[in-house]
Amino acid sequence: MNRTTVAGMIAVAMTTGAVLNAGFAQAKPGGAITCRAYAVGARAVADCVNSDDHPGTVTLTGLCGNLRVFRQANVPIAPNSPIRLTEDCGRGFSSSDGPINQNAWGETQYQKQHQDDSNPNPYGYGPYGPYGPYPPWTLP
Questions:
Q1: What is the mean pLDDT of residues 79-83?
Q2: Cβ distance 90 to 44 under 8 Å?
């Protein structure tokens, strides 16, 4: 073998070794959606901020003083932006008769994909239902 061939093979071997020893890029988990729910008079208000680089969804639920349940589900939120959700419990309510309870939470696109990938069957129901192929009265 001549020197050019040997030098070329050494260069290829060094390049291949450097490439194989290089680290792999990890997917960034991203930011989160933080929410704060509170009552203002007869209204339930939720302020949410998406600190992720991808869109997400926000949900506001609660109970009014007249026992009306409200739910605003899967409201889209843009990446790196705030959103405010409000729900009016109706006329004639004072601040003490407004929302009894209000909750708000958000889910980023990354969180939703990770949840779906990690547990594709969250309730554990197979093709035969929650107890498998056997009726519940035959289980030990």
A1: 95
A2: no
